Amino acid sequence: MTEKLQKVLARSGHGSRREIEAKISAGRIRVNNKVAQLGERIDADAKVRIDGHEVQIKPEEEVICRVLIYHKPEGELCTRKDPEGRPTVYDRLPRMSGARWVAVGRLDVNTSGLLLFTTDGELANRLMHPSQQVEREYAVRVFGEVDEAMMQRLRKGVQLEDGPAHFNSIKPAGGDGMNRWFHVTISEGRNREVRRLWESQEVQVSRLIRVRYGDIPLEAGLPQGGWAEMSLPKVNVLRAQVNLPAEQHSFLDPRHEESKQRRFAKIRKATARHRQDKKQSKRRGK
C-alpha cells in the first residue's frame, strides 16, 4: 500500500506536513534517487533522502506519539539553530535517535508560555491548521485605555494587513490604571496576531503569555525553560480534538510515575544547570 510522501515523513517525525511540503517544493527531498514531487506516493521500501541524508521511514504501528509541554521563556527563538548563537527552544529538549521534535506553532522571541512539541508531524499539522479551529488562550498585559467599545470591536473583528481577525473572547484579569491584564482566546496562529489585534486599537502589549493550547493548559509549577512529557491519556485528549485515532503506547511507564512535586523539583534543577552551563560557555567564548 502506498501513502503520500509528506504524510509518511510527518508521521515518522521528520517535520510537520507543512514543513515537509515546503522542502519538497524546494527540491530538498529525493525518493529512490529522484527529486520528489508534491503529492507523490511511496511504499514501505522507498529510499528517502532529505538534504542528502537518508531518513528512516516508520510504519504507523511502530510510531509512538510523544508530546512535550514546554514553558518558553522570553528571549528564546522558535528555530532549530540561530546563526548568531542566540538560545532556541530546542536547546533544552531531550535528545532522540531516529526522530525529532516538531513544534506546534511558534511564539515570538518576546512571548513566553506554553509551547507544545510532538514526534508526530501529522498531529502538529492538524493542531496548527486553521480548519481545526483549535483555541489558544493568552494572558496579556496592555498599556493604554481599554473600554467596552474597544473590546466589542476586537470580538467582532478588525481588519489587519493580512485579513480580518478577532478574539473569540476577552476577559479582564486585573491590574491598575493604564496597565491591565486580560485573558484572550483566538483560533488562529497568524504571525503576532494577538499583538497586532491590540495594536490596531492603539494599545501597547507589554507582556504576552500563552497559557493554553486546545484543552492543554500550561501546568502550574512548571518553571520557565522546563519541559514535561504528557501522559498517554492527555496525548489522546489532543489527538481526539483533531480527529486522530487514540495512541495505544506511551514512552512513559505509568508504574514508575513520580509525583508532580518531585518531577518539577527535578526540572527546576535541570533548568538551573542549563543556565549555569550557558554562562560558563559564554565566559569561555570571550
TrEMBL record:
Signal peptide: none annotated. The keyword Phosphoprotein does not apply. GO terms for biological process: enzyme-directed rRNA pseudouridine synthesis. The keyword Oxidoreductase does not apply. CDD domains: PseudoU_synth_RluB, S4. GO terms for cellular component: cytosol. Keywords: Isomerase, RNA-binding, rRNA processing. Residues 251-261 have a biased composition (Basic and acidic residues). Residues 3-65 form the RNA-binding S4 domain. Responsible for synthesis of pseudouridine from uracil-2605 in 23S ribosomal RNA. This is Pseudouridine synthase. It comes from Idiomarina ramblicola. The lineage of its organism: Bacteria, Pseudomonadati, Pseudomonadota, Gammaproteobacteria, Alteromonadales.
